[in-house]
Each structure stands twice: as C-alpha cells, then as structure tokens.
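Structural biology now treats backbone shape like a language. To illustrate, our science desk offers a sequence and the tokens encoding its fold:
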Amino acid sequence: MKNQDTSDGNAPKSSPEERFVEFQYTEMKDLTKHFLTLIAGTLVLTLTVAEKLLGASASETAKTLLGYSWASLILAFILAGIGLTGIFFAALAARERAVFGFAANYQKIARPSYIAVDLAGILYVVALTLLVAVGILRLHVS
C-alpha cells in the first residue's frame, strides 16, 4: 500500500500510518518487551536477596524504602505493560483505521501509551534510587 509517487526521483513515500507501524511500533514493542524483562528481573533479584539487603538488624526506614522500591517496580511493570498494549492497539488503528469495529485515530492511542512507558521508566529509576538508599543505610548501620 505504498504511495508510488517518485516524481522527485526519490524512493516511494509511505503514509504516516505506515511509517508508524513499520518503525515506531516495531521499535517501541521491542524496547518495551526488553524493559518489562529488566523490571521483572530486578524485582525477582531484590525479592531473592532482600534478607541480605536489609541485614539482621534492619531499621524500619530501610524496610520502608525497600517496600517503596518494590511498589515502584510493580507499578513500573504495570505501566510498561499498559504502554505495550496501547502501542499494539495504536498500530492496529494505524493499519486498520479501526479498533474493535470503531473508528480510531492511532495518534490518540499512541500518546498515552508513550506516556505510560515514560512513567514506567521514571518509576524504575526511582526504584533503583531507593535500592541504593537501602544499601547506604545498610552500610551505615553495620
């Protein structure tokens, strides 16, 4: 379905919808899938080594910070999953011009999806910062 207008001698031009599906959707899908794996791995790792992170005489502050870190990781995972789902529906709308039989604008679907993935990234950094704070507290208590 490419536009075959090559009057200026350049390669055929594609529509914004086709470019979105061919590049942005593909790249965001791969990026978000890897990001979901990273978030899940970080969560599993910190859950596994929580006792070592906190130590035998962990302060309430360290426990609270670790709890907030886990909450941030879980929320980041959820937001990244929502973003991935939204990007899929945006690509569906771009290709089919409809989602579930309703006319849909792919840009209106993609925007909140990008925001969800961005917020997931911010929460991931917050979670890592909280983990560093737990480690610093552990060093000062020991």
